[in-house]
Amino acid sequence: MTPTTVRIGSGAGFAGDRFDPAVDLAARGDLDDLVLECLAERTIALGQQRRLADPDAGHDPRLHARLAPLLPVALERGTRVLTNMGAANPVAAGRAVRALLDDLGARASVGVVTGDDVLDVLDLGAPALEDGRPLREHGEIVSANAYLGADAITPALEAGAQVVVTGRVADPSLFLAPLAQRLGWAPDDVDVTAAGTLVGHLLECAGQLTGGYAADPGRFDVPDLAHLGFPFADVAADGSATYGKLDGTGGRLDRHTVREQLLYEVTDPSGYVTPDVLLDLRGVRVDDAGPDRVRVHGARGRPRPDRLKVSVGHRAGTRVEAEISYVGPGADARGRLAADVVATRLAGLPVAPRIEVRGGPEDARLRVAARGDDPAVLDAVGHEVEALYTNGPAGGGGVRVHRTPVLGVVSTLVPRSAVHPRTTILEAVGAAA
Amino acid sequence: MRLHDLAHCRAGDKGTVATLTVVPYDDAAYPELVRSLSVERVRAHLEPWVAGDVVRHELPLVYALQFVCSGVRGGGVTVSTALDTHGKSLSSRLLAMEL
Lengths: 433, 99
Description:
- Chain A: Residues 6-424 form the Acyclic terpene utilisation N-terminal domain.
- The structure holds two protein chains of two kinds.
- Chain A is α+β, with helices and mostly antiparallel strands.
- Chain A folds into two domains: 5-123 and 146-307 and 418-426, no CATH class; 316-407, 2-Layer Sandwich (Alpha-Beta Plaits).
- Chain A is 29% helix and 28% strand.
- In chain A, the strands form three sheets. Chain A has a ten-stranded mixed beta sheet, sandwiched between helices. In chain A, strands 5, 14, 15, 16 and 17 form a five-stranded antiparallel beta sheet that branches.
- In chain A, strand 7 (231-236) and strand 8 (241-245) form a beta hairpin.
- In chain A, helix 3 crosses helix 4.
- Chain A is globular, with a radius of gyration of 24 Å.
- The two termini of chain A are 26 Å apart.
- Chain B starts with 6 loop residues before the first strand and ends with a helix.
- Chain B has a four-stranded antiparallel beta sheet.
- By secondary structure, chain B is α+β, with helices and mostly antiparallel strands.
- The A-B interface holds A 41-42, 130, 213-214, 216, 219-220, 255-256, 259-269, 281-286, 298, 316, 319, 321, 353-354, 356, 358, 367, 369-371, 406-410 and B 4, 8-10, 12-17, 19, 21, 23, 25, 57, 59, 61-64, 66, 68, 74, 77-79, 81-83.
């Protein structure tokens, strides 16, 4: 029988998110589904590089640490868990989850969604959306992943998977898929699809809906950030939803926190594009509905786009960042003198470093940063800052020099016919096929 | 008075495009924000950090203004040499604006 409402929770909003709020939600939240969104744009390009070095790597390195305490609690209560921690290697991630469940003696089946990796079939002569230049002109391409939609996730749910692991899918689709499957929404019903997409959009950053990333002491006070509770939504069959968080958790959930997240990263409120729908936010209303409860309704939709967005990762050289501090009387002037010295010393370099003095009058930190391909040039940048110890202004201290390989990301569009999502179900050892 | 006295703000980023969501603490202050935060004034205030166009969307049902800023200086999150590669701190830059 189709339920009247579904409760879906958000257990992670990025790869670096806290572990414990999801466990608390699973234990006390009476959830139907719990989604862990852990895959930023660049993360998959980084994962692809790890996978090249080790065929079993490339998924989220915290997968085990995040899921080991969570899955026993969630599965015991019948809560499904969906996550994009598969990153650049969903198959290996699925095997890791299977092994974890086997260790726990859990019979739950794992669904793995693949097909987002289109590197082998992508036309590298196609223009990047960002600048119109062919993709290959941006540097060595290391990854290309299509944003799959809810329709790529549904088969795993229909097959009874209780844990679903994906690579690149659109973040809201991770939420829309279980909602649509439980509430019986048809993919071509654009308004409920838009409403479910809005649920995903509001929940996908987890604590950003419940007062995380909002606190501003004296203006926007948020209680007990150290124990920020993550949100859930009670979603009705018409797609309207009431958002909440668990009693006893920190944070705050009200029209202010929800309004900020409603428009987060939205460049066109009349048509927020996902693989599932064009979401029109202009008619959405956000109203307080009690302590830490907010009601949201009014999403409208237009049919999904014909093409899928592909996120393309490319090598973009190395970034060097070098810093030194000056404190006490005249710190700012000494910092600026150090900046002048470095600028003079680096004037002949083929890269133009960013040179800035940060901080206040009595606590100044010179920061020099550059990006390039030539290791000797980048080394010179760090070296000149280090040399300020004995060649620069008085009292310089705390030199740090960091070098980081840089991956750039551009995007392009491909026809849906070029992308073939697949589902693999990993049953417990000894389970009937 | 600064915008910080009237409103809170969140920045989001999409490559070299930054979104800035401005919401008044008091819903009744929304019309004042619509009057004060013209595209021209916001673009002038953000000029050190934003090179391109600023587009404003009004969302009166949720008492919010959305500014979409193109050409964030430094190249965007993936290749920027800025300390805050995302441009996350643009929200606080905007709140420093005098009204």
